[in-house]
Amino acid sequence: MPTEIVVPLLIRDLTEADLPHCGWSGSRLHLEHVARELGRDDADYLVACVAKSGFPVGKGLIDYRKTAGAGTIGQLAVHPALQSCGIGTALLLAAEERIRAHGLSHAELGVEVENPRARALYERLGYVAYGTEPDGWDEVAPDGSIRRYETTCTLMRKPIT
Ligand SMILES: CC(C)(COP(=O)(O)OP(=O)(O)OC[C@H]1O[C@@H](n2cnc3c(N)ncnc32)[C@H](O)[C@@H]1OP(=O)(O)O)[C@@H](O)C(=O)NCCC(=O)NCCS
Predict the structure, then answer these.
(1) Atom of ligand 1 nearest to the CA of 77
(2) How far away, in angstroms, is 89 Cα from ligand 1 center?
(3) pLDDT digits (tens, 9 = 90+) for 136-155
């Protein structure tokens, strides 16, 4: 029988000191990109961390410049060992709170068309699909080379009341 243990988490702004502990969230290239973006004054990076140790277990970006009147949530990831425990939902709700505090009327996000589980989570939280757009980023191949990954994302939005 599983033992249930409550682990208090804290959601706060991501700092450069968190990045060496965020290897679970993406490649070296991704973390270098996050490090460059941390200084932006039109974006917030949130991190969910274990309250006692400060160890990061989930993260996400809110971009305030992509769409006028909306905050765009992106780069959402939860440590693989802790997925389906509610951390992604907690991060999304905290991101929506930030967007509301900025006086914006909508939260937006893009989800890859091949990621139905993430899309189902967003739909459960009230996001509605309204279009698609191509997306792409550089990633590190198993042989260490860098290759371009191209994909299509479903765009979703939710009114923030
Ligand atoms: C998508 C992702 C960010 C969601 O985070 P998460 O922490 O797993 O999400 P949640 O736990 O809040 O909700 C997801 C699931 O847990 C369930 N859940 C929510 N709260 C729960 C709780 N307190 N206890 C148990 N299960 C819970 C939800 O019903 C949902 O069910 P599902 O397994 O059918 O999807 C995460 O799975 C992830 O990092 N995936 C890989 C990267 C990725 O796809 N990112 C999205 C890019 S758009």
Answers:
(1) 39
(2) 7
(3) 999 888 898 999 999 999 99
Q: Which residue segments constitute the domains of the chain, with CATH numbers given?
A: 9-159 (3.40.630.30)
Q: Which two tokens stand for residue 19?
A: 């990045």
pLDDT digits (tens, 9 = 90+) for 16-61: 999 999 999 999 999 999 999 998 999 999 999 999 999 999 999 9
pLDDT of 161: 82
Distance 70 CA to ligand 1 centre (A): 23
Count of all residues that appear for the chain in the document? 161
- How confident is the model over 86-142, as pLDDT tens digits? 999 999 999 999 999 999 999 999 999 999 999 999 999 999 999 999 999 998 888
Residues with CB under 6 A from ligand 1: 76-78, 83-89, 111, 115, 117-118, 120-121
Closest atom of ligand 1 to CA, residue 117: 35
Phi, psi of 76 (to 5 degrees): -75, 130
